[in-house]
Amino acid sequence: MEHKLYIYNTLSRKKELFVSIHENKVGMYVCGPTVYGDAHLGHARPAITFDVVFRYLLHLGYKVRYVRNITDVGHLENDADSGEDKIAKKARLDELEPMEVVQYYTNRYHKAMEALNVLPPSIEPHASGHIMEQIDFVQKILDAGFAYESQGSVYFDVEKYNQSNHYGKLSGRNIEDMLESTRDLEGQSEKRRSVDFALWKKASPEHIMRWKSPWSEGFPGWHLECSAMGTKYLGEQFDIHGGGMDLMFPHHECEIAQNKAGLGKDSVKYWMHNNMITIGGQKMGKSLGNFITLEEFFSGNHALLTHPFSPMTVRFFILQAHYRSTVDFSSAALEASEKGLSRLMEGYARLQKLVPSSKSTIDISDLRAKCEKAMCDDFNTPIVISHLFNALPLIATIYLEFQMISEEDLNELISVFKLYLVDLLGLRTENETSNGLEAYKKAIDLLLNLRLEAKRNKDWTTSDKIRNKLTALGFEIKDTKDGFEWKI
Ligand code: ZN
Q1: What are 141-150's pLDDT values in tens digits?
Q2: How far is the CA of 122 from the centre of ligand 1 (A)?
Q3: Which pLDDT does position 290 carry in this prediction?
Q4: How far is CA 99 from the centre of its chain?
Q5: Is the pLDDT of residue 436 over 60?
Q6: Ligand 1: distance of its center to the CA of 337 in Å?
Q7: Where are the domains of the chain?
Q8: Whole-prediction pTM value?
Q9: Which fold has domain 279-424?
Q10: What is the 251 CA–ligand 1 centroid distance (Å)?
């Protein structure tokens, strides 16, 4: 691969030249949502960050297998080893089957991702669909001597692991400090040490989501799913593992330990973490009660919002900051993004209407290289955006006929905008999204109603003409007793 892409590796704490393990193939794993509630701005950031990484790697010519999981079992309240399963709790409160909760919120998550123009991953495995793989993984860690069974549960022996490895190397912690700060009372826990974490938990009698295992009827620990599904789909060693910074500890730290203990090697070459979104400087999250769901953004139905914000405005707002910086949300900041995005989109639309001249009086030759340099510098989207912004006055002067542009330069400018704005940053004009789709559906209905009217008037020529033309375009039209149905 001929490029110099640098990725900041959270593990080494520096930018490293990206060299994939398997030449033109890239394996990328990103921790997906725990599906017990609506997606909010905090979910949008990792999804959009790694969507851009996915798009850019594809653009560079890699064959990317992108795995983003759905967590639907084992994630307990407070991210801890005890407490109720988040899915099971929601199911109990809503009087639903846990899998009804999972399906409902997974559907809604997909809808929100589609609105944000986040490409679907190559594989989206569910934790509950990989219980066997997780049981096998626990067994591997037990066989290697890095875990112990206690009253039907299995715990990872952090202290033993730390004798030959560094538990805490990703998040920059050390076990002595952890033991110091979380000393538990002798004999009050199934765990030997407070730092140990669950690989398998024996289910209490009231626990609904449970599976048979060699140790007890129970369920896997939250951290285990990513070790099991990552290695299943990407192999024992793969290129990129991503997620939000809030997952670094304990989730990713535990994943590193599980893989090293169970497989005898480090699985991940580049660890990538997006920073958090804050509201008024405060962390946003369900537990803090200050989060705004994506649907509330799109509808404007929230006290902190002045009006509805389109999915593309939300996407642009997130991409205006580098993924490793914090982003502080406010309605005013979002309004600024809204204006900025519409300026860019207008510029792009205007660009496509320009009439070329015989020669150029402007120089656009370095725009592509500048954008590429920014993307290759750890996916620096705000710099890409600033380069595109800088081209806007140029477009305006050509439009107003103060300057001229040759056909070749015009095609290059259009191509750079299309590549960076549309294909890589994934921004699209809003009427191509939900509004456009609605209008399109209405237009087809309108045509078919005209056909119905023609039929009533026994105007078979018109009615057949509409039907045949639509069929030729790939529409399937069915007459029903109250009118019609259609699909593509
Ligand atoms: Zn994970």
Answers
A1: 999 999 999 9
A2: 16
A3: 73
A4: 22
A5: no
A6: 31
A7: 6-274, 279-424, 435-487
A8: 0.86
A9: Isoleucyl-tRNA Synthetase; Domain 1 (1.10.730)
A10: 6
